[in-house]
Design brief:
The protein is 51% helix and 13% strand. It has helices at 17-28, 49-55, 71-79, 100-110, 128-138, 140-143, 167-173, 182-192, 213-233, 240-261, 268-285, 288-318, 325-332, and strands spanning 7-13, 35-42, 61-66, 86-90, 94-95, 115-117, 120-121, 162-166, 197-199, 205-207.
């Protein structure tokens, strides 16, 4: 009988065979190996079973195929079949540094927490656009450091691309709900359940971002809308940092109009901000080309999120239209 693994790695997958290959390859290279991998194929038309079979001889991995119901339901499917003391969640587009589990295990031994998460970073093999988008999603100048930055404007909230919690948390709080920003919802329920949440900064992952700005805009637009959904579910959850992109969109539009019709000097604050973004990215990435790309990437991040936030705020809060939170969750569960 095989010993019980300390960690169960749970990964939902939908048509990501190449990314799954990279993820499993990185898990094979881990220096700490007391973990199992549970990969749930959520109704993919391009199953990743060949990638799983490629590494199954060197990795404790189990593969399940199920009908498409959503990533949260897929994660819960994996939770029901997991054997570990802790459950760790990665997205299929992540690559895991070889010392990740050794670092995680050491940090949890020294400072135990019930729920944990770590930041993400850009691997050297990523494209310049992916690296620019990674900067836009992690810089204090764009997100306020809420995704695990060294300086933060809000309490850390683990994200599902690099997140974990104990079996006790699962038995008490349950699994994920099929909704946008399901990881924030999960973290909120964990905190409300009286469990501790900690940021383990050295336990980072390489997270492949969207490969073009159009897809990135759509992604952050949905993030902005989901923040209002979370506001409806948890009235006290909306903080100033969450409203800043929307305020930036409004103020930016006003400054542009004033600059066009009153005086070009009104464009100066925008110019200063763009220069600050470029210099910060240049220092961080040490690449002039990537730093140039971070300017449009950051603008896309702010405007996409801000527009989604504004639309959802007006539609759902000001006008009171659309489904309430219980209806949205039920619909996404297929009920």
């Amino acid at each position: 009988m095989e010993p019980t693994p300390k960690y169960s790695v749970i990964v939902p997958v939908y048509n990501r065979i190449d990314e799954v290959d990279d993820l499993l390859k990185s898990l094979v290279a881990q220096t700490f190996t007391n973990f199992e991998v549970i990969l749930i194929e959520d109704g993919s038309t391009q199953p990743c079973l060949p990638a799983v079979e490629k590494y199954s001889g060197n990795l404790n991995v189990r593969y399940y195929y199920k009908d498409n119901e959503g990533r949260s339901i897929a994660r819960n499917y994996g939770l029901e079949r997991a054997n570990g003391t802790y459950f760790v969640f990665f997205d299929s587009d992540c690559v895991i540094p070889p010392d990740y589990f050794a670092t995680l295990n050491s940090c949890l031994s020294e400072n135990p927490v019930d729920c944990f998460g770590g930041p993400d970073a850009a691997h050297q093999s990523f494209t310049p656009t992916q690296k620019a988008i990674s900067f836009a999603m992690t810089s204090f100048l764009t997100t306020g450091g809420i995704r695990g930055g060294k300086v933060q404007m809000e309490k850390f909230v683990p994200r599902s691309f690099n997140m974990g919690y104990s079996r006790k948390v699962y038995e008490t709080v349950g699994g994920f709900r099929e909704m946008f920003s399901e990881d924030i919802d999960m973290s909120t329920r964990v905190r409300q359940g009286g469990f501790s949440i900690g940021l383990i900064r050295p336990a980072y992952v390489y997270h492949k971002r969207r490969i073009d700005f159009r897809k990135f805009w759509r992604q952050v637009y949905v993030f902005g809308m989901s923040r209002i959904t979370l506001k409806l579910l948890y009235p006290d959850s909306l903080k100033l940092v969450h409203t800043l992109p929307a305020l930036a969109v409004v103020i930016g539009c006003i400054l542009v109009l004033l600059g066009l019709f009153v005086s070009p000097w009104w464009l100066l604050p925008i110019g200063v901000y763009i220069v600050a973004l470029f210099i910060s990215a240049l220092i961080s990435t040490r690449s002039f080309g990537i730093a140039l790309r971070t300017v449009p990437a950051s603008i896309v991040q702010i405007t996409g999120y801000g527009c989604g936030f504004i639309k959802a705020f007006i539609t759902k809060i000001v006008l009171g239209r659309g489904r309430n939170i219980d209806e949205e969750i039920a619909i996404r569960k297929g009920k």
